[in-house]
Amino acid sequence: MKIPASIENNFLQEQLYNQSFADSTSLERIIDLNPLVVNPSTLLPEVLHLMSQRWGSSCQISNSQTNGKILSSSSASCVLVVDKNQLQGIFTERDLVRLISNGEKIEGVTVGQVMTKKVITLKRSKFEDIFTTIKLMHRHQIRHLPVVEENDSLLGLITIIKLRQTLQISDFLRFRQVNEIMNSEVIHAPPRVSIHHITQLMIQHKVSCVVIVEESSHSQRNKTTTNSPLSPIGIVTERDIVQFQKLGISFAIPAQTIMSTPLILVNPSDSLFKVNQLMRSHHVRRLVVAGFEGELRGIITQSQMLNMLDPVEMYGVIELLQNKVNQLQAEKFDLLKCQAVEMQQQAEIANRNFQDVRVRYDSICTEKKELERQVYHSQRLESIATLTSGIAHDLNNIFTPILATAQILPLKLPDADAETKYLIDLLQNSVQRGTALVKQILSFSRGVESESVVLQVNHVLREIHQVIQETFPKSIEIQTDFDKELWTIYGDATQVHQILMNLCINARDAMPDGGRLKISAENSSIDETYARMHRDAQPGNYIVITVSDTGVGIPPKILNRIFEPFFTTKEKGKGTGLGLSTVVCIVKNYGGFVNVYSNEQGTYFKVYLKASQAIEISQENSSQIPRGNGETILVVDDEAVIRDVTKICLEKHGYKVLTATDGIDALAVYAQNVKKVQLILIDMMMPLMDGTKAIKTLKKLNPKAKIVMMSGSTSGNQEVLENIPIEAFLHKPYTAEEMLTKVSNILNKFGE
């Protein structure tokens, strides 16, 4: 193909076009993801009806033949025969013409009996570009190319029409003429032959149309002329044959009565650009070529225009454009290189101290490596956090039935002896401790958002003392000194636990050969004078927690860096460098500050937590566990143990219970009992259909349905409450009292 001179003069515009053209030839742009699909057992008349709903009219039908029937304007020239998403075959307009030509009947015949079974397909992974796809279709002389996945499941369909629409080939057609690609060997027939004879010509010559001709008026006046030229007066296509079959038209009638006329003619010297415009404006796939005196010269089709776009030739155009891009880039690079050399020379003249520049460069490289290390470390921590969240969800699902069972046992054994009651209490307390431990782990790994309450720190201090007493080496002596009348703070017990554990672990690591670890807590008031001497302090009341050790101490040169994220003096794999930075972050959020003192005899960390004026609310529950009045509750959970224990607990407290194993089962049970069910308890994470999808579907069945979502996962709960129409959220593991109170509150709030 000759490259226009405008490519050289307006290269930047061509570069942009080349890029947009390449972007438009991806598989997603040329594939029809919703082709017409039927199963092998579909009757052939039904298939023709489906195809006819998308056919466009390519011929004029008289009212006497059609009884005023109007044809639709969309397009479908084939159906794909699929069974269990596996392509079995294809049935095209040409297949129907073949049946009609052979005189075969279509009534009672399924498409599986007459379809083409050996189908040329393209695997998705084998797709290279649009040009090789065109070449594949041209080599096999096909107009439909199904695309399949690696497992041979159907993905979609590529057609000649879709290729033409996607390619936007007009810019490649301006410099080519019709006579370069037209087919001069045209299958034609006189006006009086029957339609049945037309179908036989199509099958014999393997063509999709027959041109209806008559002798030209010039040859009729000059009877001595041999090989008289023929004038095209109409055309009959495969699409017309299919339409005639649909309308029940007799195939014995002459072609001239139902052929498409008048014809849209082009001249051999016309440009392919004009042909493309005519095809698009008249919605046709072929045009008849006639000379200046109207004589038949040939025919031109969409397939020929696409086949004209040879991949080698197209790649030649693109390669030429790319070479020009590379040339400009090389020139730009040389220019930048010259400018860089000039700037370097000027810099050397202005600054003789090159060594300082090199030192600065090395410093930047070091900082870059440190940042990369920190990013990698953060990604690793994020992976651990994701794993931890999943494990926590499973643990909470395990704890839920244990905790519920522990609370049901006293009801089942009202006359149990003191030892049995003690064991039941021990079981319940152990599960609650395990639940708190899971919450702490999540807080450490992912920073689960906490709920601040009025907190008595003495409770946390005693728990920390118990934990480290049981887990730290016996060579470390642990001492405590807690003020009995400590003020309260406004915070989260898990985060305070995290502060103390980080400090205690650092103290333990500083004493590998043993030593003394002391934890003390006292009330303290800071005045204006002290606040002015310490930058982060504010006047007011504080609780001061001191964690001291007799370890190796912190060197003075790194003392001011210990609170930096990722800074650690521990060996690789033994520290993250995030412990003390987490401590400072939490303490500052509570309006407090941290002081540290260290020497060769040990280290002291003093944590100042802002005191609260509120009084801690007693956690003891003096109220009775609420009971139901025979209300029906649907419990949905894929964990059989949780489902059964929850059912027993609800039934023991006056409720009727229905159960479901997953979201789909829940929909079925609820649909049968929609008038009975007054509340739904549903798990968030389930197979087949999860809780969020099930809830939305349940709300469609009954917008007034009252739903409580349950989950052992702590991540995303706030988003769930905001975006899903539920009445409450119940965190696993839950106690019987928590569940029954929530159920009772919702039923009482909304009533019946």
Structure overview:
The protein has 28 helices and 24 strands. The chain has 752 residues and is α/β, with parallel strands linked by helices. It has 3 domains: 24-307, CBS-domain, CATH 3.10.580; 353-420 and 623-752, Response regulator (Rossmann fold, 3-Layer(aba) Sandwich), CATH 3.40.50.2300; 450-612, 2-Layer Sandwich (Heat Shock Protein 90), CATH 3.30.565. The strands form 6 sheets. Strands 13, 14, 15, 16, 17, 18 and 19 form a 7-stranded mixed sheet that branches. Helix 6 (93-101) packs across helix 14, helix 18 (354-412) runs antiparallel to helix 19 (418-446) and helix 18 (354-412) crosses helix 24. The longest helix is centred in the middle third of the chain and has 59 residues, at 354-412. It starts with 5 loop residues before the first helix and ends with a helix.
CATH superfamily of the largest domain: CBS-domain
How many helix segments?
A: 28
Largest sheet: 7 strands, mixed
Helix/sheet category: alpha/beta
Provide the CATH architecture of the largest domain. Roll
Q: Categorize the overall geometry.
A: elongated
What is the helix fraction of residues, given as a range? Answer: 40-55%
What's the domain count? 3
Radius of gyration: 42 Å
Chain-averaged pLDDT: 79
CATH topology of the largest domain: CBS-domain
SS strand fraction: 15-25%
Uncertain spans: 1-24, 56-75, 617-622
**CATH top level class name of the largest domain:** Alpha Beta
Indicate the topology.
Layout: H1 6-9, H2 11-23, H3 27-30, E1 37-38, H4 44-52, H5 63-66, E2 78-83, E3 86-92, H6 93-101, H7 111-114, E4 122-123, H8 130-140, E5 144-148, E6 154-159, H9 160-167, H10 170-173, H11 178-181, E7 188-189, H12 195-205, E8 209-215, H13 217-221, E9 230-237, H14 238-247, E10 265-266, H15 272-282, E11 286-290, E12 296-301, H16 302-307, H17 311-350, H18 354-412, H19 418-446, E13 453-456, H20 457-471, E14 476-482, E15 488-491, H21 493-509, E16 515-526, H22 528-533, E17 540-549, H23 579-589, E18 593-599, E19 602-612, E20 632-636, H24 640-652, E21 656-660, H25 663-672, E22 677-683, H26 691-701, E23 707-711, H27 717-723, E24 728-731, H28 736-750
Parallel strand pairs: 1-2, 4-5, 7-8, 10-11, 14-16, 20-21, 20-22, 22-23, 23-24
Antiparallel strand pairs: 2-3, 5-6, 8-9, 11-12, 13-15, 15-19, 16-17, 17-19, 18-19
Helix pairs in contact: 2-17, 6-12, 6-14, 18-19, 18-24, 19-21, 20-21, 21-23, 25-26
